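User: I'm writing a tutorial on reading structure tokens. Could you give me a worked example: one chain, its sequence, then its tokens, then a sentence or two explaining what the tokens reveal?
Assistant: Sure. Here is the example chain.
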Amino acid sequence: MIILRFLRHVLNGSTDARHALARYGGKVIYVDAPLGPIVVRITDDGFVESYTGEAEPSLIIKLTADVVLNWLKEGELGSKGVRIEGDAQFAADLSRIVGKLDWDYEEDMANIFGDVIAHRLGKMLRGFGSWLSSAQESMKSSASDYLTEEAQLLVTPVGVEMFIREVDEVSDGVNRLEKCVSAIVRMRRDNQENIDV
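And here are its predicted structure tokens:
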């Protein structure tokens, strides 16, 4: 499996992360990834291997495409797009271990393509991440503008303020009307009592 080979490669270059991971040898992790589920077991030497046994996973990690987008934008794996269920202490330690992973993808590409092309590819990937970030913000802004201005499905902040002001005016009017009605009822009752006497 390509992902496991990739993890083995990254762990080979991250001795600290591998030693920390070795403490959890035997633990099973179920990863619900966008391209399909992956079940792995941590080995006693701090690597991960494919697992097909019956043991219950210690952690269930649900990933969305945001994880990859965040990595492209920030250059690190963050918590955006990740939901974790299971052993909380193991999850916290695993998060710290993942933080220790040190993969220099430009160096790996340099071994294949050479230094100049690897640097340009790295720059392109970082630029692509920035572009994705700005495109995402632009899409949010455009969608917001469309939903508020064109389709009028969302209310603008000015519209909310006007609505609140109008509700306050109606509430004040109802209070004044209630006082007037109460005064009229009182006057009629007083007049009725005077007639009865």
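What the tokens reveal: The chain has a mean pLDDT of 78. Residues 157-196 form the longest helix (40 residues).
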